Amino acid sequence: MNTIKLKSPDEIEAMYRANQVVAEALMAMADIVKPGLTTAELDEVARKVLEKHGARSAFLNYPHSNGGQAFPATVCTSVNEIIVHGVPSRDTVLKNGDILSMDFGAVVDGWVGDSALTVPVGDVSEDARRLLETGRECLSAAIDQARDGRRLGDLSNAVQRLAESHGFGVVTEFVGHGIGRSMHEPPPIPNVGMPGTGQRIKVGMVLAIEPMINAGTPAVVTEADGWTARTRDRKLSAHFEHSVAVTPEGPRILSARPRWNQRASPRETRS
Ligand code: MG
Ligand code: MG
Q: How much distance in Å is there from the Cα of 266 to the middle of ligand 1?
């Protein structure tokens, strides 16, 4: 079925609750990121947040699309040249100067929340900082297009135009998606596209918008574990995602991170 399921205001509230568990887990993980931490420790933190809320992981045991091993963790931890779907491990120790993408999903009362961000580990290079900044801006620009009457191509193009104007490559193998009672619902949301093309955006749509941008070319290689996707040229990659409801008042970021937005700290800029 290709039909997009529009959500009622009550359903959007329920999705907000699921996404706020996601936001809390991402903040709890990001708060402890430092050189020497393993990505397995991040998975433990995320599991505790799920437990506290009686929520279920949307990622753990997620089936592999080609019949490979199901996803073995609650969070995707993707370091440096890993674009998405990195698997947490006791052997992956964060180092000063790394960048780390954390992608997390939770199910609350049958509704799925999905959000991701990329953070610096310690002091990162100016190039890495610029990639992260541009990734955040790409997500904001795309969210701003999530308005009744616009088209998906407007949203895709906002990401592509901004990323390419900085000389970055936009990943096309992976895309954003509608979200609701399933993590991946129609429509697919590419990060490249032409303005004025594609499906018309309507009130009641909930969209997981997730630009993935590379410091080098857009080319992707999947590692032998069947999950880990990295840049072919092994240059850095950044990933940012929010679940966004299209409302009569405009886009509403269901996975917004209130604690960071309230305090005047550098973290604020991570949202
Ligand atoms: Mg995600
Ligand atoms: Mg997603």
A: 23
